[in-house]
Amino acid sequence: MRLTFLFLLLFSTSVSVHSQKADWKSFIPQLQSQCKLQESDFENVIVTSHHKSPKSGLEVIWLRQTLNGLEIFGADAQLVLDKNQKLTQQQCHFLNNLSSRLPIQEDGLSIEMAAEKALHSKGIDSKIELNELQSTRTNRWTAQNKGVKGKINIEHAYWPDKDGKLHDCYTFRFTPQNSDSQWQIRIDAANGNIIDTRNLTLSCHFETPILPLVAQPQHSSKLQSNDQLLNDGS
Question: Could you give the residue ranges of the DSSP H alpha helices within the chain?
Answer without folding.
Answer: 2-19, 28-35, 111-120, 226-229
